[in-house]
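User: Good morning. I'm curious how flavin-adenine dinucleotide would be positioned relative to this chain. Could you predict the structure with it bound?
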Amino acid sequence: MQTQKNKDRVFSFEFFPPKTPEGVQRLVETQRQLAQLGPEFFSVTYGAGGTTRDRTLETVLAIQAAGQAAAPHISCIGSSRESLRDVLQQYKAHGIRHIVALRGDLPSGHLSAGEFRYASDLVRFIREETGDHFFVEVAAYPEVHPQARDAQQALKHFKIKVDAGADSAITQYFYNADAYFQFVDECEALGIDLPIVPGIMPINNFSQLSRFSEACGAEIPRWIRYKMQGYGDDSASIKAFGLDVVTHLCDRLLSAGAPGLHFYSMNSAGLVSTVWQRLGLS
Ligand code: FAD
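Assistant: Good morning! Here's the predicted structure, ligand included:
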C-alpha cells in the first residue's frame, strides 16, 4: 500500500434519513457536533428500492443548509432510468456535487429488478446523464460481497465499476485490517488506482451489530465475538472494549497509509467523536 500524506486524507460521516420529527431534531445536534471535527462530507443513505427517496433528499438539503457538504447515496436496483434521471436532476438543481452510487438490494416482496442490474450500470448512467458534474463514490468489499461466488471474479466486477467512471470507493465495514490491505494490494495489481477509504463501524449494540454483519458479509473475528459475549449485559464494558478495538483498527489503517476513514455514525456523535479524539485527529 502506498502511504497517503496527512493533508490528503478524506474523513466523512454517514447518516441514515430519520423517520420521526424527534429523529430529525437529534440528527441536527449530531451533525452540529460532528461538523466541529471538520469532515470532508456527510453522506446520507437511500432505502432499498428508493423507499427513502424524499427523506434522503430532505436530510441532504438540511446538511447543506447547515453549511456542510452532503453526498446522497443512490441505489439503482428496482428503479427505472426515468426515475433515476429525476433524482440526479433534482440533486444537480440543488447544487449537490458528490454521490455514492450503489446497486442496493431489492426490498422483500419486490420482484422486478428494474432497468439496472449492477452499480456499474448506474455509474455509467450518471456519467452519460451528467458528465463530470458529480464526484462518484462506489462501494468496495475487502471481505468479499456476500453474493459473490468467487473473490477473483468479484475483483474484476469491482474494476468494471471503477472503469465505468468512479472517482473513489468506500468499503463495507470490517474488523480485520489485513483483509483491507490485501484487497488494496490486489486492486493496485489490477491497475485500479482510486482511493479506497475504509468504512468504520463503531461498536455499540453488539447483538444488532451481529445481525447486520451476518446480512452484509462483514466478519466479526472470533476473539472480538467471545469477549463481547462474555460481557453479557454489561454495556459499559462492551462500549469500552468496542472503542479500544475500533481505535486500534483506525490507527493501524491510517499508519499503513489508508486514504481516510468513513464512519458509519448510526446518527450518533458519541462513539465517533471519542475514536476521533483518541486518534488525535482534531
Ligand atoms: P455491485 O457493485 O453491483 O455488486 C453487487 C454484486 O454483483 C457483487 O457480488 C458483485 O460481485 C456482483 N457483480 C457486479 N458486477 C457484476 C457483473 N458485471 N457480472 C456479474 N456480477 C456482478 N444499500 C442501500 O440500499 N442503500 C444505501 O444507502 C447503501 N449504502 C452503502 C454504502 C456503502 C459504503 C456500502 C459498502 C454499501 C452500501 N449499501 C447500501 C449496501 C449495498 O447496496 C449492497 O451491499 C448491495 O448488495 C450491493 O451494492 P453494490 O453497489 O456494491 O453492488
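The chain has a mean pLDDT of 95. The domain at 6-278 is CATH 3.20.20.220 (TIM Barrel).
Let me know if you'd like a different ligand tried.
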